[in-house]
Amino acid sequence: xxxxxGFINEFKEFAVKGNMIDLAVGVIIGAAFGKIIDSLVKDxxxxxxxxxxxxxxxxxxxxIILSKPDSYAGPETYDELxxxxxxVLAYGNFLTILINFILLAFVVFCLVKLxxxxxxxxxxxxxxxxxxxxxxxxxxxxxxxxxLLKNKN
Length: 153
Description:
The chain is mainly alpha-helical. The protein has helices at about 1-15, 20-55, 80-85, 90-130, 135-150; strands spanning about 65, 85-90. It has a two-stranded antiparallel ribbon.
């Protein structure tokens, strides 16, 4: 019975440790942040890119048919050819995912850079406040004693 209680106590200690809670909060916030970034790329950047390029940046239906079953006579779309068992080189899907990745990486880079600037500014303000703060009374008193001893010699 004591082994079970010891195990449960160890688990409680592990589960409520600060690092464990911090990790859980980080994962939850990271998932929410990922959704924000995905939406920013999909709903804000992609429409501008589509407008600039005069069409769509979705290349997922671009492919090369390497071979298809002889009996296949259906539409030559990627989905239909894949279902029929055709050998298809789907370079367009890769390009679409690559473009999305580059945009995501760019947005994350810009946000990290912005956050780093904000942190540096905050740290600078804290350093200025710390430098401007008056010395505690005991430090002032010790400084005066030191100066008196210097003048005495």
